[in-house]
Amino acid sequence: MLLRCDLDHRRSSCHVPTNMLLIETKDGSTPDWQFVSEGVEKWQLRAQPGEKRVLIRIGAGKQYPVHSHSVPDEVFVVEGVYVDPQVEGGKSFGPGSYLYYPVGTEHQASSPSGCTILVWNANR
Q1: What is the 3-state secondary structure (H, E, C) of 45-57?
Q2: What is the pLDDT of residues 78-123, one digit of tens each?
Q3: Of the candidates 44, 39, 50, the residue with the CA atom closest to the CA atom of residue 112
Q4: CATH superfamily of domain region 24-121
């Protein structure tokens, strides 16, 4: 991405590429949570060709259905305790933890006390 500027003592001007001007936002005061399964809901933040960002909220003692992806899946724990029985013997991951699931990895997000995770993948 290039920013082209003409800085001359008589005038100055900049050409800003159109793709730099599009900033997408989501209003956190009115999230659009959607039902996934009992005690699990998601808020799709971004879904464009080649990229997907989703917040997933898992209630205490609940779990996301078992699934896998044709692209890598990345998880960042925003709050609470995240557990996947298939990762490190069901180890608990707290806020700030990051997990990378390679293509085809079957996984099942769950939480003993509730959690919110940010999930992103290439969504091809």
Answers
A1: EEEECCEEEEEEE
A2: 999 999 998 999 999 999 999 999 999 999 999 999 999 999 988 6
A3: 39
A4: Jelly Rolls (2.60.120.10)
Confidence of residue 2 (pLDDT cuts 50, 70, 90): very low
Question: What gap in Å lies between CA 68 and CA 1, rounded to an integer?
Answer: 34
Question: What's phi and psi for 20, nearest 5 deg?
Answer: -85, -15
For the whole prediction, is pTM greater than 0.85?
A: no
DSSP 8-class letter at 69: -
**Domain boundaries, given as residue ranges, for the chain:** 24-121
DSSP one-letter code for 119: E
- Grouping H, G, I as helix, E, B as strand and the rest as coil, residue 102 is coil
Q: Which amino acid is at 74?
A: E
